[in-house]
């Protein structure tokens, strides 16, 4: 969050200098503070909206509901997370929220349909572990701030293009800076998500395996997920939330951006670690 504020204040200073208007800097300061507060108090709702997740009731998916409820009790969570579904045939899942008392577990429709009960239990245990370890708070804030940086850079570029009130050199410099920032925005976004250590995925795998006492089930689930050819249509800023990188099967520019600074360790390493666990 401190890095984010520094970037926003820096952009505000550049803008105000080039436009010769101190008010622009103050607008950026207010924007930076408000977006930080937004990420803390409403970040989880924003993540759910971006991913297109919809809340489900017990009667709709009783099996997955029972798995989440039972593993939440086993993990000692103070409250069962709310369950959301993404209407996609891709195989993936993630957890988000502010704390174990206010959390959500999200599954794609594809992962529920394609995995067997033991594999689903392994996936649920992994996501419950992220909640138990408070990973969800950092992951949520990183997603929102990363997305905002990308949006700001895009706005910067558009303003520099359409600001045709004069043709001074400062306007040309504004365009150059905006263009560079627009190109580098995904990199800035991924650098922020490095606040999420790749070791947290290993930790969630291990904690989940201890909850189920069945590391092979999660390893099998990861094998099926990584072998799937279906990719998920979501923002690169949310990629680190998912149990497996949602862009791994894509070969386009978005895939390149999503993999540029991967926050996930290689699936093969995770599977090997799970297979080697002795419980």
Quick structural summary:
The protein is an alpha+beta fold and 279 residues long. It is built from 12 helices and 4 strands. It has a 4-stranded mixed beta sheet, sandwiched between helices.
If you had to describe this structure to a student in words, what would you say it looks like?
The protein has 279 residues and is an alpha+beta fold. It starts with a helix and ends with a helix.
Q: Radius of gyration from the CA trace?
A: 21 Å
Regions with little confidence, pLDDT below 50 for 5+ residues: none
The amount of beta strand, in percent, is 5-15%
CATH class of the largest domain: Alpha Beta
- Output the number of helix runs: 12
CATH fold assignment of the largest domain:
Zincin-like
Secondary structure category:
alpha+beta
Shape: elongated
CATH superfamily of the largest domain: Metalloproteases ("zincins"), catalytic domain
Write the layout of secondary structure elements.
Blueprint: H1 2-19, H2 22-41, H3 43-51, E1 54-55, H4 62-75, E2 82-86, E3 93-99, E4 102-108, H5 109-114, H6 117-132, H7 135-162, H8 169-192, H9 199-212, H10 215-227, H11 253-260, H12 267-275
Parallel strand pairs: 2-4
Antiparallel strand pairs: 1-2, 3-4
């Amino acid at each position: 969050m401190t890095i984010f504020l520094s970037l926003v204040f820096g952009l505000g200073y550049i803008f105000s200098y080039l436009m010769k208007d101190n008010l622009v800097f103050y607008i950026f300061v207010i924007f930076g503070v408000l977006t930080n507060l937004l990420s803390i108090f409403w970040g989880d709702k924003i993540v759910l909206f971006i991913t297109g997740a919809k809340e489900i009731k017990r009667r709709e998916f009783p099996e997955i509901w029972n798995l989440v409820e039972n593993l939440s009790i086993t993990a000692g969570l103070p409250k069962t997370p709310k369950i959301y579904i993404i209407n996609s045939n891709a195989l993936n899942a993630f957890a988000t929220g502010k704390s174990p008392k206010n959390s959500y577990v999200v599954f794609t429709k594809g992962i529920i349909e394609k995995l067997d009960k033991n594999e689903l239990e392994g996936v649920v245990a992994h996501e419950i572990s992220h909640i138990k370890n408070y990973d969800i708070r950092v992951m949520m804030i990183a997603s929102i701030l990363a997305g905002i940086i990308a949006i700001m850079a895009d706005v910067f570029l558009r303003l520099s293009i359409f600001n045709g009130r004069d043709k001074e050199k400062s306007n040309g410099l504004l365009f150059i800076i905006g263009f560079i920032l627009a190109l580098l925005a995904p990199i800035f976004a991924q650098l922020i998500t490095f606040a999420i250590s790749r070791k947290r995925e290993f930790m969630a795998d291990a904690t989940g395996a201890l909850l189920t006492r069945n590391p092979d089930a999660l390893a099998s689930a990861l094998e099926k997920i990584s072998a799937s050819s279906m990719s998920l249509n979501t923002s690169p800023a949310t990629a680190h939330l998912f149990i497996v990188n949602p862009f791994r099967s894509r070969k386009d520019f978005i895939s390149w951006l999503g993999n540029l600074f991967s926050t996930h360790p290689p699936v093969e390493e995770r599977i090997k670690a799970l297979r080697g666990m002795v419980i």
